[in-house]
């Protein structure tokens, strides 16, 4: 069964702490289960701290370019800087962590159309293997923001379910029913 959750990330300091958490080497098999898209990777074999800094610089540079182009300087921490997604899989699905990481990458590529930078980190520290996905709120061209709404969340679930089903995961039927209330 595949379950997806979304959390908005406010504040650049929180985004940095979140990057540090999702790249935890104890949970990602020494960073082997980390993938990204659109990032400038200038290190051959980075340590955990170097990787956190590299990803944070990538996101921050994109933010600065967006702010300069749109003449909007951040005044409050209310601005959404990233979107944190969790994609959880049941232990009964019998998928390898590498397959789950690939599913997360394919889901994000299709959802964002390759326009937004993202990180996919697969955590294996719990009974259920799950992806932590961090999408930059500003696209790669630094001219548009990702607005998270119900339609995008529904698309995420549909894309995630379709790709997961092709990989052999079980899919939850109707998630919400008025009869359950």
TrEMBL record:
Pfam families membership: Relaxase
InterPro entries (alphabetical): Endonuclease_MobA/VirD2
Residue span(s) of domain MobA/VirD2-like nuclease: 48-167
Protein name: Relaxase
Organism of provenance: Streptococcus pneumoniae
């Amino acid at each position: 069964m595949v379950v997806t959750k979304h959390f908005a990330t406010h504040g650049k300091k929180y985004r940095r702490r979140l990057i540090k958490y999702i790249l935890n080497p104890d949970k990602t098999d020494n960073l082997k289960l980390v993938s990204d898209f659109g990032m400038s990777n200038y290190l051959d074999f980075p340590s955990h701290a170097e990787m956190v800094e590299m990803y944070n610089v990538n996101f921050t540079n994109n933010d600065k370019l967006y702010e300069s182009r749109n003449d909007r300087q951040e005044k409050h921490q209310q601005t959404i800087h990233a979107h944190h997604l969790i994609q959880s899989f049941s232990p009964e699905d019998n998928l390898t962590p590498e397959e789950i990481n690939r599913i997360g990458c394919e889901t994000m590529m299709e959802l964002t159309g390759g326009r937004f930078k993202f990180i996919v980190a697969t955590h294996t520290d719990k009974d259920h293997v799950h992806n932590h996905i961090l999408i930059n709120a500003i696209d790669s061209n630094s001219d548009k923001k990702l607005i998270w709404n119900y339609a995008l969340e529904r698309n995420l679930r549909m894309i995630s379910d379709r790709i997961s089903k092709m990989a052999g995961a079980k899919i939850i039927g109707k998630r919400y029913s008025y009869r359950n209330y």
